[in-house]
Amino acid sequence: MSQDENDQQPAEQPAPKHRVHFVRAKAYPNGSTSPLRHSILQVLGVLKVATVKQTWLLAQPDHEHPNTVAGGLRDLMKNKLTEQRGTTSGLPSKPDPAATGPAAAPEPKPARPKGTPKRKPMRPAGAGAVIWGLTDLGLDAAKSTLPTSRKIGDRARSVGRATGAPHAMAVNDTIVAFTSPATPGEPVGTIADWVTEAPHPLPGERTQFADAVLTAPADGIPLLLVEVDLHNETPEFIAAKFDRYAEYFTLTYKDPTHEGHPSNADRLPTWRRRYPTAGPDSLPPIALVLTGAGPRGLNNLIDKVKDLTRKHWRPTSLDRWSHSDPFDFTGSIPILACHLDKLTAQGPHAEIWWRFGGQTWQTLDDALAHTEYRARVQARLDTEAQDAHEAKEQRLEATRCPDCNRRQDEFDDQRSASDGTKPCWHCRQKAAADAAEKKQQAVRDAHAKRWPCWTCKGPLGGAFDSVLELTEEAPAEALECPSCEIDRRNNGLGRLLLPKPTFSERRQARKQTPDDPWWEMRLLHAEQWPVRSSN
What is the pLDDT of residue 410? Predict the structure, then answer.
């Protein structure tokens, strides 16, 4: 390859190096920096107690090892801001001299052979991780690292002493799984967005404490209450928490000004004053994180809690299903559950959440939005609507009139429609009118073959389409139309007698048929009434 070709080749970028070495402050024996101590105080200010690993994952996860965080904790302990509470196994972090008696003189350590690597100190088997907490001075220092409006409570003096604090550690692991930058997927919120042991006062000097509360609107979680429970808790004990939450959500306060709340009500929900960032469509969602058992045991616990809390998470008006909106959750508590080990391994955005009322595992966003339920119910409603439409169409098709082929919905007055077996009212009326017209025409044709009215010389049955026109053929002796007969009676005239044929007319009739249409009637009248007037 020539020199020119070498010049045209892009220079290879050096691989990024993971940061290992850090500048240490000489004023602190363990070399911790001020930002590191600030982050540690912030984490302990929220969690109250935590292990080195938990603090490391939340305070400085970009450090390759948690040693720097452990050094920061020891530096803070030297300044009486932190203290060791014990270990996660329940054993003390250091032996108690009062229990073991006077310490014997340590035996001299054998000399390490030259060239042999220095051994790292090892903790006894089963000792567990050391639990760190804040002192009273540390609690005051931690307040300065959090928002000024944040109430961080006390320092949980008894947590971690001789018990291992399994519940507190599970709560910490839940927050780490949500918020640590090292969590799989995208983290949710920051440590400053969390509050632990959040009190919710109830009547009768009772309080429902939420294990953790997350408010991270920037990450799409305006509000999420978190309850962490171990498998040794009974379903009834866990369900009772939701009963107390439901009671708290019904509490109201009087705010005539409605400041910050677009409402015309005299009393507003108390929880909205505490959580103004909550969504408007439902009560605050509650995440139930379970641990301490295998998948089958945790799933069984979820099913039992779901059945016991059905009245809280079902749609608001489901008891009146026929008149309710299946998507109305304004008075329902969104409850979703997951396994802590899955949350830690897969992160909060994986399909590990079971929304009560749903039928499958979902992501956090889908579980909060109840996407699966809404899609499933909407599909069922669409199917029911389609079936109802097809049934209606089938019923309407069966009502087509045999004559005009119109359906029931094509009539202005559906009472006149057909039932599919006989013509509709309009067709029956038309058929009756056609039959009457045909009959009327037959009567007119019969009258036309006879003679006209003697008086008006019009049709014998009367004027066509008049009120007095005969619908039946006139009697054989009829000589006048109905109108002329009525006039004769009204004028007091007697029976109409046709003129008697004269001798010349009779003689002429013997030779040829007379063209007089009334000739036969004149002869009949002459025989019946030989003595009469001429008219």
Answer: 86
